[in-house]
Amino acid sequence: MALSGEQWTISYSGWEAVIASVGGGVRLFSLNGKSYIDGYDDDDLAPGSAGHILAPWPGRVGDGEYEFGGHTHQLPWNEPTTRTAMHGLVGWLRWQAVDVTDSAVSLECSLPAQPGYPFPLQLRTRWSVGPGGLRAAHYVSNVGATACPFGLGVHPYLRLPGSSLAQWNLKVPAKTELTTDERQLPNGSTHARFQESTPIGDTVLDTSFGDLQRDSDRNARLVLTGPDDGEELTLWADESFGWFHVYTSDTLDGDRRRRSLAVEPMSCPPDAMRSGTDLVTLAPGELWSGIWGISPRK
Fold first, then answer.
1. Per residue in 275-293, pLDDT tens?
2. Torsion sign (Cα): 268, 273, 279, 281
3. Organism's domain of life (predicted)?
4. Measured at the alpha carbon of residue 94, what is the angle toward residues 251 and 72, in degrees to the nearest 5?
5. What angle do CA 269, 234, 265 make, to 5 degrees?
6. Distance (Å, whole) CA 233 – CA 249
7. Among 3.30.70.20, 3.40.50.150, 2.70.98.10, 2.40.30.110, what is the CATH number of 7-296?
């Protein structure tokens, strides 16, 4: 079997996406043969967690240590250079298909209680393609006997065909962005950049944007536009996602460096397990849900 596990191809009227079982995320997404995410081969490890689901926390947890319910918990570091636990626990697990059609696939993952996170979860994601592009609907249940802390993010790397990242214009519907220390942990906030469509140029971003502004349907929309308005790509997210993390891929290796823009819809910011900012507390039996998607201009 390929390193990224079992694969499911879903399609609809020119839209096509490939979903991988390892990480439970999107590996490829295209419209009429044009790729709109920076994917990877099925026998590769997903570079930079490309497409993966990030749960039960997105981003970094400083020192991997947090308190919840009167107890201190210690997570293993998986980014030793910053001494942090990064991107949760389900990104390298195998997800199982429970419902497959031509245009949609639903995957499930059971996260067992374990040292550092002694809270069992049942996760389900329905990936689909349709008239609006790619859509992901996430459902997470606390199947344990006690309340648990929870957050979720997803890690697609966006691309615009026929142009480079430096040529793209970015619009982020946010009022604030987080500042960070040398370990990339939040240490404050400031007025958000890119509130209007602005060239990325040589700007380096590994930044969480908050206070998202929403349209009449209550969705927040981040928009990428190519030179001369030739291509446009929108990532939208519902009210369960209060943050967008934007990363210009500067620390990726080889030709992936600054080739794409990671835009991560997140329910909470990095280090929320310690700060508590927008961290969800799931009661036993409680269900959390959130929906987001990617829409190229057709």
1. 999 999 999 999 999 999 9
2. positive
3. Bacteria
4. 70
5. 15
6. 18
7. 2.70.98.10
